[in-house]
Design a protein that fits this description.
The complex is a heterodimer of chains A (402) and B (244). Helices cover 54% and strands 23% of the residues of chain A. Chain A is of the alpha+beta class. The longest helix of chain A is centred in the C-terminal third of the chain and has 39 residues, at 255-293. Classes of the chains: A alpha+beta (402), B alpha/beta (244).
Amino acid sequence: MLMSLAGIVFGIGFFIVTQAQTSGFEQFFIRTILGTNGAIRIEDKIQSTIFAIAAAGHDADASKFEVAADRAGRKYIEGVEDPALITDALRKFRNVSGVSAVVQGSVIADSTFKNDAAKIYGINLEDHLAVSDLGSQIVRGAGGLEDFRTTPQGLLVGKVLADRLQLSPGDSLILQAGTEQRRYRVSALYETGVSDIDRVRIYMHLGEARSLLKKTSGASFIQVTLFDRDRAPQDAAKMEQVLRHGAKGWQEREKTWLEVFRALRVSSALTVSTIILISGLGMFNTLAMIVIEKTKEIAILRSMGYTRSDISRIFIWLGAIVLVMGTVGGWIMGAGVTYGVSKLPIRIRGIFSADSFQVYWSIWHYVVATLTAAVVVMTAAVIPARRAARLEPGDIIRGTSQ
Amino acid sequence: MSKSLSSPASLLSAPAQNAAAGLALRCSNLHRHLGQGEGRVHVLRGVSFEARRGHVTAIVGPSGCGKSTLLYLLGLLDQPDDGSIWISDQLMSNSSDLDRTAARCEHIGFVFQFHFLMLEFSALDNVMMPMRKLGRLSEAEMVARARSLLADVGLGEKTHRLATQLSGGEQQRVAVARALANQPSIILADEPTGNLDVTNSNLVFDLLTKLAKENGQAVVLVTHNPEIAQRCDEIKPMRDGQFC
């Protein structure tokens, strides 16, 4: 029984730890991605296409247009035509905390060392700081954001790209868009931790980007942050309907990675649950053995007037005690190991940047672990309990005493 | 061998007569088969029996004659294939498992050849177990009664000893105290001295009969010990599933 108890403790403990870790990395990824690309992105104007025209017959009033209202009948026009108008409209949404119009384009970045493909993001710094963690993502550059703010030709370059081009703050960089070539100055290097971003993205002032890309009006997209990030899908749908522009919440945008994290979380939960399951089997065996060993005692209790339910309850209680002790022990172990793991140094770069194990504290990890253990342990207890209750005292005592 | 043989003639009107005659237990025409198929044995062949309050009845006979089977039927631990059993005024032979269990708790105390104590518990706890189930007394009252019963069987100083820390004779005395815990009207004892030396046998038997008589309880005991049987109020010899 002690081994089963230990198994329950370890099972619950590991369940909590693995869930805390996978959820921790997932939450960290979400924070990173929200801090870089915002909660909602508004891009591409929707134009409803006319797909059916009823031609006029002989009736004078029969001529009419039928306009498509469903997604299949939509046509998207690239970019946001009037960002000021859309920005104003977006700010009226109660859940919107920040809006930033971005002009985006492809360039060739040419340093003295080599050239490389890059994407420029023309931003209004103050607006963009409100919709991203750019301010806290600066990793090199003494002047940092202040230098960028005061230098019209200033650039914020992703750290991976800067390393490839061997750029440091203060260096100059030539950007080429089509036939246009201009020299800029690196104000600071930033690192989001998402290598796909840090490898290509260069931030520059919005006006400069318009000039370089020859996009005198409009925006490529509008980045939006929300007070309640979980409401992004509903808000995006509403924005799309009201603004007639495509709107994608972060859940839809990052669906692939979120599915990967979900699969990892479920997979680790299933794997660790086998420890609980094996402990449950061990407990089932132990209780079944106890029923066999204690048949005389069960018979004597029945002879005293204890009912079948009373006998059954003894074994259920035994299971419940193991469950309670195992749960409390598992919680303590889970919380302790989760705390210890959160202090372990580990350098992660790729889909996000972290220097220690990420954990996420959630009461639901404890609840689900407990429920899993409860189902396993109580099932393991109920079967022997029912077997014990079915024993006939007369048969047992007769077998013993004759 | 029989000191006095009970007449089964009046068994048909049992409930009414039970009370009048001070009968704690009656059975009529009990049949019981054990085993299955070719191994099926007709163990009890129409046994009728009655036990009076304050009387000690010994059932004797060779091994396999059906003594213990009868005792377990009377104790409602088993069900007859045919026949009737009345406990006090109630017909119990065909009642539900719950009713028979409740009747055991309230009306019947068992003493077995092996003490069957709960070894993980103290003598006091063992004696309190039937009382806990019956639930008529408060915790303090149960403790007081258990102490009193243990004192009656000479174990007043050992109430808190674990069952494992008691000798064989002491364990059986605890079993006697446990059987008397709920003040049952019937004490059924299956070879209660069968596992004890002469001194302890006499001690346990004397205790059982003395306490039962004082409380007006009917005692039915199965024994192979002729000396013990001779000291009972009534001897019922059995052979081949019937009283001789």
